[in-house]
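Hey, does this match?
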Amino acid sequence: MIQNRIKVLRAERNWTQADLAERTGISRQAVISIEKYKYTPSLELAFKIAQVFGVEITTVFSPEEDSK
């Protein structure tokens, strides 16, 4: 599973899910699904989300840590 920090990054900027949706051109429901790990965005969308936040993609998305 790919982890994401979208909710944290939104909170740091005082953005709502609707704000992020508008900035990325996706629906608010898509933002909710990504935040709740019900939907993994395409690589293109992942890069767009990172660009909107003004950070590297690895700041937003990262592989799940192994629980060994």
Q: What stands out?
A: Residues 2-54 form a domain with the 434 Repressor (Amino-terminal Domain) fold (CATH 1.10.260.40). The beta strands are 2-4, 61-63. Residues 7 and 60 are 10 Å apart (CA to CA).
